[in-house]
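Archive entry. Fields below.
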Amino acid sequence: MYPNVTIIEHPLVQHKLTLMRREQTSTAKFRQLLREISMLLAYEITRDLPLRKELIKTPLSTMEAPILASEKKMVIVSIMRAGQGILDGILELIPSARVGHIGLYRDPRTFIPIEYYFKLPDDIEEREVLVVDPMIATGNTAVAAIQRLKQTNPFSVKFLCLIASPEGIKHFHSYHPDVPLYTAAIDDHLDEHGYIIPGLGDAGDRLFGTK
Ligand code: URA
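PREDICTED_STRUCTURE:
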């Protein structure tokens, strides 16, 4: 239905997302769930990572064993500040990945993203980039982040979120049809404040306990 969008429907992902959506879920629990769900999402997204063989010695023998070919070539780019929760989970799985940050906030009146921070590792032309942000609402932030990132000419780019709106996906795809988008859910619609309905509220506020 949506080109270049993959919905990750693993039962554990869906279960944890439901717990995160619940209004009564505490900040500590929300944080823990976001870390756990991010590991599960990363597991799915990294299925096609290339492997190479390395000669290793076990206590009993030697063998040519498979190992990631490019662990250090991966860059996780967190869109601040809510992307931090996904980043933390993924780094538990892929600890050698490099990390970039893009600071964008939404003007609450126009919903237009404004950049306040941008830092990426070197050699971005050789790196596979995974951009993370829990929510694609209007899609403005995601579109702006990818636009900015493309100026640096990365080897490849994927985008990972938890919940996307139909409006956000269409907007994203109209600007970046070449960028695969992974999400755990596509919700119903956006409200007049640009929030996803039913959604989970403001992901940054829920992650950091702010209001
Ligand atoms: N950002 C969020 O954190 N939640 C929404 O519903 C929309 C944008």
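CURATOR_NOTE: Residues 82, 135, 137, 194-196, 199, 202-204 surround uracil (CB under 6 Å).
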